[in-house]
Design a protein that fits this description.
about 50% helix; about 10% strand
C-alpha cells in the first residue's frame, strides 16, 4: 500500500538571504531601469494636467447668522449646494455654454468640489490638459451653479469670492513621484522573480541537499570534469595521447 504525503516547501531564511545578496546587482539594475523608464515615459508621453479653482460664498445678505440655528443652517446648505454643483442641469448648461465635446460623466471627472471645515465656502476645482480651458470651465461652473442654487433655493444667488485663475504650473503627473514608483516597482518585480525561481528550484546541488531533501546519508562525492577540457590540458596539440587514459574523477 502506498502512502500519500503532502509536499512541503521549507525555506531556509539564511540561504534566502545569501541568494538575495548574490543577486543584489540584478535587483538594483532592474530598479534603475524601471525608474529611468517610467520617468522618461512620464516626461515624454504623459500630458501635463493643470488645475484652476474658484470659490463661492454660500451665505448671502438674505441669510442672517444671529443664532446657532442659522449657523447650522448655513453649514447644511453648503452640503446641499455641494451636490447641486455636479448635477446634470448644471453640467449640461456648462457643456452648452462652452460648446464642450464632453459627456456629463466626463465633465464630472474633471471637477472636484470641496468645503473647507467650519466654513460656508465651496471651492470648485477643474483639471484639464489646457490651462485656459481649466479656467474657463471653473468660471462657467461658478456662474451656472450660482444661478441654479438661487433657483432651487428660491433665494439670492451665492456670491463669487474668487474667480478662477490661469494656472501656470502643472499639478500632475509628478516626474519625481513616478520615477520613484518605477524604481520601487522594478526592485519589487526583480526580487519577486528571484525568490520564486529559488523556491521552485528543487535541484540537488550539494551533499547537504541530499541529506536535507532526501533524508539520505552521502557515502561519496565524485567531482565532474569536462572531458574535452581535460584532454586539451593533457594534449595541447590536439593529438591523442598514448597510453592508458586516467579516470575523470575520484571517489572520496
Amino acid at each position: 500500500m502506498g502512502t500519500n504525503q503532502d509536499d512541503e516547501i521549507e525555506i531556509d531564511l539564511k540561504e534566502l538571504f545569501y541568494v538575495i545578496k548574490r543577486k543584489l546587482w540584478i535587483i538594483l539594475l532592474t530598479g534603475i531601469v524601471g525608474a529611468v523608464g517610467f520617468g522618461l515615459f512620464t516626461a515624454m508621453v504623459m500630458k501635463p494636467v493643470y488645475t484652476s479653482s474658484t470659490m463661492l460664498y454660500i451665505v448671502n445678505k438674505t441669510t442672517t447668522l444671529t443664532s446657532l440655528t442659522d449657523l447650522q443652517l448655513g453649514t447644511q446648505l453648503t452640503k446641499d449646494y455641494k451636490v447641486l454643483v455636479t448635477s446634470r442641469p448644471v453640467t449640461g448648461q456648462v457643456i452648452t455654454n462652452l460648446d464642450l465635446n464632453l459627456s456629463h460623466e466626463q465633465l464630472v471627472e474633471k471637477i472636484k468640489v470641496d468645503n473647507p471645515t467650519d466654513t460656508r465656502i465651496l471651492t470648485i476645482s477643474v483639471e484639464d490638459t489646457d490651462p485656459y480651458m481649466a479656467k474657463s470651465i471653473a468660471d462657467e461652473f461658478a456662474s451656472v451653479a450660482s444661478a441654479r442654487m438661487a433657483e432651487i433655493m428660491d433665494s439670492a444667488p451665492p456670491n463669487i469670492v474668487e474667480e478662477a485663475y490661469l494656472p501656470t504650473q502643472k499639478t500632475k503627473p509628478s516626474i519625481t513621484k513616478n520615477t520613484m514608483i518605477g524604481g520601487l516597482a522594478g526592485v519589487f518585480l526583480a526580487g519577486a522573480v528571484i525568490l520564486v525561481l529559488f523556491v521552485m528550484n528543487d535541484a540537488i546541488k550539494t551533499p547537504e541537499d541530499v541529506e536535507k531533501y532526501l533524508g539520505l546519508n552521502t557515502l561519496a562525492t565524485i567531482p565532474v570534469f569536462e572531458v574535452r577540457q581535460a584532454r586539451k590540458r593533457r594534449n595541447p596539440n590536439g593529438r591523442r595521447a598514448g597510453g592508458k587514459q586516467d579516470a575523470e574523477g575520484f571517489i572520496a
